[in-house]
Design goal:
Distance between the termini: 64 Å
Largest sheet: 7 strands, antiparallel
CATH architecture of the largest domain: 2-Layer Sandwich
CATH topology of the largest domain: PmbA/TldD fold
Strand content: 35-45%
Number of helices: 9
CATH superfamily of the largest domain: PmbA/TldD superfamily
Shape: globular
Length: about 450
Amino acid sequence: MKTETKLSKLEKILDLAKLNGAKEAEVLQMSYTEDPINFENNKLKNLQSNQGCGISIRLIKNNKLGTASSTDPDALESIVKAAIEASEFGPKATFELTQEKINHSSTTTNSILPLEDLVERGTAAIESLKTFHPDLLISGGFDLSIGETNYLNSYGVCGIRTKSIYSAGFYANLVRGEDFLGVYESKSDLENFPDEKKIIASVLEKLNYSKQNVSLQTKKYPVIFTPKAVKSIFVYILSVMLNGKAIEQKISPLINKLGELLFDSKLTLNEDPTIGTKKAGFDDEGMQTQKKVLIKNGTINSFYFDMSSGSRCVPQQTSSGNGFKPGLSGVHTPMLTSLIVTGGSKNNHYKDMVKDIKEGILVDELLGAGQSNVLAGEFSTGIELGFKIENGEIKGRIKNCMIAGNIFEVLKDIKEISGIQEWVGGSSLLPAFLIDGMTVAGEY
């Protein structure tokens, strides 16, 4: 009955849009509930639940687009009026809304938050971390987020998308004079709260790696990028270059590069909307999402589009089911769901790679990786958390160091890709990369 009420409300909005002269219209109703259990500086801080709901509409009138949104789910007439008025000055509509039915539906699940148990687990996690140093300050905790999206357009295309995301993460920081050390680990899952004991073990491991600060000479080193670092630099830059908006605007260096071998043949990048925390059966334009191979064995295989970017390309492209809104009031834009970089041929972890390096660097956290000339493939970023490798062992933490390069050069020859992949942020399943001969600027 709850879903029928929502559907009838969306139908009423579409009827109002039609009465006001709209040729086509689509409406989204989004709602969410968040139940966080937050600790700050070793103490329980927040148990307050957060809820939100809103409606957004996009319509086409006189061949122009008009959009509007409201966090008042009952403001039906005002939201239609705002979209109609916006269409007078809106961009030209270069596409039509989808008429293809959505072959996907999901129902809301009732998730029970084990409050007392999670508070106890969080307290135990903090006590475990404090064994490293009594002055260590720990923040983080658990969060259960439940979201629902209802879609309906004037062609009768409709769908319901629901998702529960269970998250756990802890941040430990220690101030030693002028030295600030911070280590963060988190995991997300669609079914259960991640095992915080594994998260704590990883944080403790990196804290122990950081007991000693070591100097670093500026020169070329073999560099291991953990899955977190692979996402921060390489997956991020590739995602920007493959974005249909960059293709439409002719600012991506990958234009006219489909079918060309540009990277190491070991590199394959896939999108899979059926798994991970960005799992989605359809996008915010009512289009079916689809698995796709973006880079296949180093060769550029496909781009990803929403309706607008695809329709404005020459030659014209269809939406690939990647039209999402970054927020209720945001405009549709090409966005990826869950990403996978295929692992290497050996069943190894990045820790196994360390054993084979005489002198090198392990990079885990980066600072400002997206502030370089990304569309040229360039990156120049500080190493927020990195370690020196000597004779197959991690000798200590490096500070105030930078790493720079261009992915067309760096990813042309990947010495090794780890066989074991890890979920990063719940939405990217990635291996570690070993790149030989990268210049690292050291200062200590």
